[in-house]
Specification:
The complex is a heterodimer of chains A (about 140) and B (about 400). Chain A is of the alpha+beta class and about 140 residues long. Chain A has a single domain (about 5-125), classed as Alpha-Beta Complex (Sufe protein. Chain: A). Chain A is built from 6 helices and 3 strands. Chain A has helices spanning about 5, 10-15, 65-80, 85-90, 90-95, 105-125; strands spanning about 30-35, 40-50, 55-60. Chain A has a 3-stranded antiparallel sheet, with helices on one face. In chain A, helix 2 packs across helix 3 (about 65-80). Chain A is globular, with a radius of gyration of 14 Å. Chain B folds into 2 domains: about 10-30 and about 300-410, Aspartate Aminotransferase, domain 1, CATH 3.90.1150; about 45-295, Type I PLP-dependent aspartate aminotransferase-like (Major domain) (Aspartate Aminotransferase, domain 2), CATH 3.40.640.10. Chain B is about 40% helix and about 15% strand. Chain B is built from 13 helices and 17 strands. Chain B has a 7-stranded mixed sheet with strand order 4-10-9-8-7-5-6, with helices on both faces. In chain B, strand 1 (about 20-25) and strand 2 (about 25) form a beta hairpin. The longest helix of chain B has 21 residues, at about 65-85. Chain B is globular. Classes of the chains: A alpha+beta (about 140), B alpha/beta (about 400). The interface between A and B is medium-sized, with 20 and 19 residues.
Chain lengths: ~140, ~400
């Protein structure tokens, strides 16, 4: 797969016009992480509604097209779901959401940063600890 | 601008086996020498020869192999010393510049820096010339302050002189920025710092590989460089310091080789520089560094510098023709090494690097271990193309075509 396939219309659109971009006035979950390789940075905020539902979710961040598009698309996917759903989400879901681009090991971290932030925040809220094991090719 | 060759680039390129390989089916265009340089066959051969014919430990045994290994290792030290205008006793082999700054932090800094002292670095330093001083400041209760930069990416000498009025204990400055390419006036800086009573550490990691360096012309207390950025192997570099200073300093690592006599309650130290080389040293890579110095010496460092100036001038002019290209750093090639950090429209450097990789082009993208400088530039990351002896004008043309391709994909 060529880079023209990685940077399809969809990813460029979410990079330039990120959905759910911004901060919430009232939130129950606030998580942030960075990818030292790219300097990518993602912060997500969630307001939890009745029945442990993701009532509102927003993110802010800086970084490459893959990291920002991935985080934005993930917020759309997560909105309205139960918090428990976040525990079920895996890297395959993120890759599918992005259109299964052929990413090298270092760029996989960009794609998964949003998921890592989402999981870290939600696990913490549920009193659990999220151990990141995805895309960990060692220190950068 | 001279688009002419200082030396036969094709002949030089033929000395670097890696340049013969393809990446994604394309010719490798290696533009990441500030990160690490490629190695000529002479360096690779020196490593193979050492392990094939002379491998044994140095300074310990008396048989033939050990004599050969010791002689080759100490020969490499003399080459490293001559390369920067020092004497062999002033050269401590270390893993690289990072180990050199950390050695100074522990062996000189801990005993000499007191509570309330001031340490000075600059905003353009690599993390390896910031973090050790933060750690030292924290452990000794000292303060660390930074020399500001002017908009063109050169040091603000007014800010530097203001800091000197506070009588700093140490001034840590790079000879050449790994991001902006800025060549600092280290002779002026060292003279002013010494007059204010400060010791001076000059980070030569980006200068020694690319231009003639004679430390006698600026007399730093400490000078550091890395072998892998100057065509040598990874894991070897040098800390150069005045002999008397090395003699006064405490050891860094304790162990074998660095001692003279060991008793149960105390020990005495070996002569410098061996006092700072505990344990079995990196013999093969030191010898490899010696071979790299021979290679650079045969080309001539004046010519290496002139070659890179011509590439830099050509690249700055050629790449500026690409709409959306924005470079950082001084435009005067006399003040700058062969390093171009840039951004291209709203394409993130990592996305750009991915697209260029497909064309066989290797550039660095990210914060370049200089996050404070990235903040000063008000960017999270930049792309960086950097040159060495094996780069050609054609490499720059390929980079330009790669930028245009990225522009097409990103609909810039």
């Amino acid at each position: 797969m060529s880079s023209a396939d990685i940077y399809r219309e969809l990813i460029l659109d979410y990079y330039r016009n990120p959905r759910n971009f911004g901060k919430l006035e009232k939130f129950d979950i606030d998580a942030r992480d960075t990818n030292p390789l790219c300097g990518d940075e993602i912060e997500m905020q969630i307001r939890v509604g009745e029945g442990q539902k993701i009532e509102e979710i927003k993110f802010v961040g800086k970084g490459c097209a893959i990291s920002q598009a991935s985080a934005s698309m993930l917020t759309e996917l997560a909105k309205g779901k139960q918090l428990e759903w976040v525990k079920q989400v895996g890297k395959e879901d993120v890759f599918k959401m992005l259109g299964n681009p052929d990413l090298g090991p270092s760029r996989v971290k960009c794609a998964l940063l949003g998921m890592k932030v989402l999981k870290t925040g939600v696990y913490g809220y549920l009193g659990a600890h999220y151990e990141d094991s995805e895309g960990s090719e060692g220190p950068t | 601008m001279l688009k002419s060759e200082v030396f036969d680039i094709e002949k030089v390129r033929a000395d670097f086996p890696i340049l013969g390989r393809k990446v994604h089916g394309k010719r490798l265009v290696y533009l990441d020498s500030s990160n690490t340089s490629q190695k000529p066959k002479a360096v690779i051969d020196a490593l193979v020869d050492y392990y094939s014919r002379h491998n044994s430990n140095v300074h310990r045994a008396v048989y033939e192999l050990a004599e050969e290994a010791t002689s080759a290792y100490e020969g490499a030290r003399r080459k490293a010393a001559t390369f920067v205008g020092a004497s062999a006793k002033e050269v401590v082999f270390v893993r690289g510049t990072t180990e050199a700054t950390n050695l100074v932090r522990f062996a000189w800094g801990e005993p000499n820096v007191k509570k309330g002292d001031l340490l000075v670095a600059t905003l353009m330093e690599h993390h390896s010339n910031i973090v050790p001083w933060q750690l030292l400041a924290k452990s000794r209760g000292a303060t660390l302050k930074f020399v500001a930069l002017l908009p063109d990416g050169t040091l603000d000498m007014g800010s530097f002189e203001d800091l000197l009025k506070e009588s700093p204990k140490l001034v840590a400055v790079t000879q050449c920025s790994n991001v902006l390419g800025t060549i600092n006036e280290v002779a002026k800086i060292t003279a002013k710092a010494h007059a204010a009573g400060a010791a001076v550490l000059v980070d030569g990691a980006q200068a020694a590989p690319h231009m003639p360096v004679d430390i006698r012309t600026f007399s730093p207390d400490f000078y550091a460089f890395s072998g892998h950025k100057m065509l040598g192997p990874t894991g070897i570099g040098a800390l150069v310091a005045r002999k008397e200073l090395l003699e006064e300093m405490e050891p860094f690592h304790g162990g074998g080789e660095m001692i003279r006599e060991v008793f149960l309650d105390h020990s005495t130290w070996n002569d410098v520089p061996h006092k700072f080389e505990a344990g079995t040293v990196n013999i093969a890579d030191a010898i490899g560094l010696g071979a790299a110095i021979d290679y650079l010496g045969a080309l001539g460092m004046e010519k290496v510098r002139e070659h890179e100036v011509r590439l830099l001038e050509y690249a700055l002019q050629t790449l500026a023709e690409v709409e959306g290209f924005h470079q950082y750093g001084p435009l005067d090639s006399k003040k700058r090494a062969g390093v171009i950090s840039f951004n291209y429209a709203d394409v993130h450097p990592h996305d750009l690097a991915t697209i260029l990789d497909e064309e066989g082009i290797a550039i660095r993208s990210g914060h370049h271990c200089a996050q404070p400088l990235m903040r000063w530039l008000n960017v999270t990351a930049t792309s960086r193309a950097s040159f060495h002896v094996y780069n050609s004008f054609d490499d720059i043309d390929v980079l330009k075509a790669g930028l245009k391709k990225a522009g097409g994909i990103f609909k810039v």
